[in-house]
Amino acid sequence: MEKFICKTCGTQFPATAVPPIHCPICADERQYIGWDGQQWTTLAELQADHQNKIADEEPNLTGIGTTPGFAIAQRALLVQTPQGNLLWDCITLLDEATKTAVNRLGGIDAIAISHPHYYSSMIEWAHAFDAPIYLHAADQQWLMRPDPAVEFWEGETKSLWDGLTLIRGGGHYAGGTLLHWPAGANGAGVLLTGDIIQVVSDRRWVSFMYSYPNLIPLPAKKVREIETAVTPFNFDRIYGAWWGRVVREDAKAAVSRSADRYIAALSAGRR
């Protein structure tokens, strides 16, 4: 019996004698089945030829990403606070070297994930660090490996500790979640967005999509809902889902002007 992992999105499934027929997350129109068809691997195979890069993003924020890149190739973020550490988003590869490095940083007290594309091998991480996983209940159908470590939350926000707050932005997924870290950016506030709010190549701006690989835009109403969800929170910086995808300053204004630009582009098509 193996816990098979989808090579396209990196999601780990429950132990079975043979691989599943397909990955429901990738069969959904927001993702895709790999160009060579559905392919699977295992954690042991991944450990044999990949390793994790661990690097500081700023004081008390550490990035963890896999090299060479695997699946969607996002990196996770470890937020370190006086009352405990939160792992934001997740990656598939977990090995002894990573466990040792994370434990040196204080371990993981809880895990929170922006949306199902980054569920990866979150259960392995939860078991390794004895940490609960907080997922929004609106995305419950996308949980491929059920486990008691998973705790579904409902509503628009969930308060954690040291001011950390999970925010339901929706958009990309109904339960699409962002994390507000008020102590980040030297106290000016940080928003960790996964790709619910996408940091684009021109990092003065952000964007929003229903499907990134298939280029399906969001309706104007959904974009405005995301902007409205983060408006009550102060933040000067945004960390997206990949290394280097960071809006370093003026991030709250970047969200507002980007939402306006996006909605204006949608409206232009009606003229």
Your description of this structure?
The protein is α+β, with helices and mostly antiparallel strands and 271 residues long. It has one domain (2-38, 52-268): 4-Layer Sandwich (Metallo-beta-lactamase, Chain A). The protein contains six helices and 18 strands. It has helices at residues 24-27, 43-49, 96-104, 122-129, 220-230, 251-268; strands at 2-6, 12-16, 40-41, 51-58, 61-67, 76-81, 84-88, 110-112, 133-136, 150-153, 157-159, 165-168, 177-181, 190-194, 198-199, 206-207, 237-240, 246-247. Helix 5 (220-230) runs antiparallel to helix 6. The protein is globular.
Give the topology, please.
Layout: E1 2-6, E2 12-16, H1 24-27, E3 40-41, H2 43-49, E4 51-58, E5 61-67, E6 76-81, E7 84-88, H3 96-104, E8 110-112, H4 122-129, E9 133-136, E10 150-153, E11 157-159, E12 165-168, E13 177-181, E14 190-194, E15 198-199, E16 206-207, H5 220-230, E17 237-240, E18 246-247, H6 251-268
Helix pairs in contact: 5-6
What brief labels describe this structure?
Metallo-beta-lactamase, Chain A; 7-stranded mixed beta sheet; 6-stranded mixed beta sheet
| SSE topology string | EEHEHEEEEHEHEEEEEEEEHEEH
CATH topology group: Metallo-beta-lactamase, Chain A
What's the helix count?
Answer: 6
Number of domains: 1
The unreliable regions are: none
CATH architecture: 4-Layer Sandwich
First-to-last CA distance? 58 Å
Can you identify the CATH class?
Alpha Beta
